[in-house]
C-alpha cells in the first residue's frame, strides 16, 4: 500500500476521533452552561446544544475533508510522521478556535442575560415593602 494512502487513513481516523471526542465533551459540559444562559429552560438548552454540536461537526469534518488532499508524495516513514503532525496540528488548532468561538458567543449571551436580570428593580415603582425588624 502506498505510504500516502496510509497517512491519509491515519489522518482521517485520528481527526474524526478527535472531532467526535471534542464535540461530545463540549456537548456534555456545555449543556449546563446553556441552561444557565437560557434561564433554566432545559428544552431550549437541549435544542441549542444539539444545534451547536451539529454545526461543530459540519464545520470541523468539512475542514478535515478539505485539508486531506496534498500534492506531495510521501517517500518514507519519516514523511508519514511529518505530514501527520502538520495536518493533525492544524486540525487541533481549528478545533481549539471553534471551541473558543463557541465559548465567546455563549459568554456574550450569558452576560446580556445577567445584565437584563440586574436591570429589573427588586420592587416595582409603585410598590412598598415593610421594613424588617432590626433595620
TrEMBL record:
The chain crosses the membrane at residues 6-26, 47-68, 88-107. Keywords: Membrane, Transmembrane, Transmembrane helix. This is Integral membrane protein. It comes from Streptomyces cinerochromogenes.
Amino acid at each position: 500500500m502506498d505510504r500516502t494512502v496510509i497517512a491519509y487513513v491515519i489522518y482521517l481516523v485520528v481527526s474524526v476521533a478527535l472531532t467526535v471526542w471534542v464535540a461530545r465533551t463540549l456537548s456534555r459540559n456545555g449543556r449546563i452552561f446553556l441552561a444557565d444562559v437560557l434561564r433554566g429552560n432545559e428544552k431550549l438548552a437541549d435544542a441549542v446544544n444539539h444545534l451547536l454540536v451539529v454545526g461543530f461537526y459540519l464545520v470541523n469534518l468539512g475542514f478535515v475533508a478539505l485539508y486531506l488532499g496534498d500534492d506531495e508524495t510521501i517517500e518514507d516513514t519519516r514523511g508519514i510522521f511529518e505530514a501527520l503532525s502538520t495536518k493533525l496540528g492544524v486540525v487541533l488548532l481549528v478545533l481549539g478556535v471553534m471551541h473558543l468561538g463557541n465559548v465567546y458567543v455563549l459568554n456574550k449571551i450569558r452576560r446580556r442575560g445577567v445584565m437584563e436580570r440586574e436591570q429589573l428593580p427588586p420592587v416595582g415603582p409603585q410598590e412598598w415593602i415593610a421594613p424588617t425588624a432590626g433595620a
